[in-house]
Amino acid sequence: MPAETNILQMRLAETPEAVPHSSEVLVGEPNFNQFTGRLYAKMSNGTMVCINPEITLGTLGASPLLHQHMPGDIIGAGNVIGRNVSLVGDAGSAQVVLGNDSRLSDARTPLTHGHSISEISELADSLSTLTTALNGKQPAGHYAGEVHSHLVSQVSGLRAELDAIVARIAALENA
Do 43 and 25 form a contact (C-beta atoms < 8 A)? Predict the structure, then answer.
């Protein structure tokens, strides 16, 4: 562990007397005790030596493994942290609802009620956009069916086009 090795090297450089026998050699990487925050080194004779007896997790700026936080210390938790969780049954008014709360799967029919346009998010804007898009369109019910027909006289300019085509055909036949 590089950070622990650096601390061990700094500690040995500061106080070489931390190693009881200068003839002893450190074997392997130091061991960090996460509960005490102390570094231990194994010597070649098998003994374990505490390298940093005065260094604690606090002096390193670290928290002990077992510690607590106030609800306000947890970023993004909202107001859920301050609530209790019901271990049995449905949650009360000051408790967090868990996934097994019966109200989450109780298919209840909503009571008949109404809302004004202003109570429904973005409805007024959507209706305004729709009204603008429909301006100038034919009213409902005034559309021809998918299959339908027209008289030649109902299609603008069609009679003149057909007469011109007939004249060209006649000219080709007489040529």
Answer: yes
**What's the CA gap between 82 and 72, in Å, rounded?**
9
pLDDT per residue, tens digit, the chain (175 aa), is 444 444 445 545 455 454 444 445 566 667 777 777 677 777 777 777 777 666 666 666 677 777 787 777 777 776 666 667 777 778 877 777 777 778 788 777 888 999 999 999 999 999 999 988 888 887 777 777 788 888 999 999 999 999 999 999 999 888 7
Residues 103-115 as b or e (16 or more Cβ within 10 Å = b) = eeeeeeeeeeeee
CA torsion angle for 147, 152, 157, 163 (degrees, to 10)? 130
CA–CA–CA angle 69, 35, 56 (5° rounding) = 85
SS3 165: helix
Q: What is the pTM (predicted TM-score) of this model? A: 0.23
